[in-house]
């Protein structure tokens, strides 16, 4: 709660946060923009898709990430999308794709660099956004008309994601996301494969599409009980086999929420955050020098409360 109060105050009060920008005409077609304090040149952009078990996702869940990345001169766009039962997986993929299209075409108006856009998703958001990316590549490879291109995405960062749904149905059922509900979200058992990026890239008809995919980097905690880290490892191995540049970064002992929530709340050094910032700023010497001079991140919650949160969290 101490950390949430501080982030919520920033979220609702800061003039650097632009809330509920409309990107489409469907319910929850809104996104939040987190802007650096000074925009004297076009800034790199992270399009972030939050998690929430496909049921409780909300754009504000990305506020801590948005705050921290914007402090390092990176614009963050947190996309909201229809949750179940308001929508099923097809609706979620459609919403996120439309949100990405909006960012690609309009982010320059907010000081962003349309040539430096990165896509990132966490948990269910990693699954949805990876589906969007692969499906978009397939459309392009078939010559279909598209409103944005995978070539506009410099890299994909997947955090604690699920990429092979048939392999996870029983696991989710045992964790409380019951089979009947999960299959309803995913539009039936017959649709699991067509919404599984790991399976989609192996389809022979997708052979031309995989070469359109950007660099893919998947992050996962080895002690993640919500979505096992094997999900990321197996997807990267599959991507390598089909010729996609990809890598997995595993964090020993980290749980499903450690990487995204608990570690950032601790302040100080954050390996995942530092990795992403260094990757985005890799070809910008001035930005790298500024990052090196940045003060340590502030702790937002006492360690005893973070440990208590880890113990009682259902994730």
Low-pLDDT residue intervals, each spanning 5 or more residues: none
The fraction of residues assigned to DSSP E strands is 15-25%
Task: Characterize the overall form.
Answer: globular
**Spatial separation of the terminal alpha carbons:** 17 Å
Derived structural class: alpha/beta
**Strand line-up across the major sheet:** 1-2-4-3-5-6-7-8
| Secondary structure tally: strands | 8
> Rg from C-alpha positions?
18 Å
- Discrete helix count: 12
- In percent, how helical is the residue content? 25-40%
- Secondary-structure element sequence? HEEEHEHEHEHHHEHEHHHH
Chain-averaged pLDDT: 95
Quaternary structure of the protein: single chain
What does the main sheet amount to?
A: 8 strands, mixed
Fill in the keyword field for this structure.
alpha/beta; 8-stranded mixed beta sheet; 8 strands; globular
Characterize the structure shown:
This protein has 315 residues and is an alpha/beta fold. The protein has 12 helices and 8 strands. The protein has an 8-stranded mixed β-sheet with strand order 1-2-4-3-5-6-7-8, with helices on both faces. Helix 3 (89-106) crosses helix 4 and helix 9 packs antiparallel against helix 12. The radius of gyration is 18 Å and the shape is globular. The mean pLDDT is 95. It is a multi-pass membrane protein. Its EC number is 3.1.1.n2.
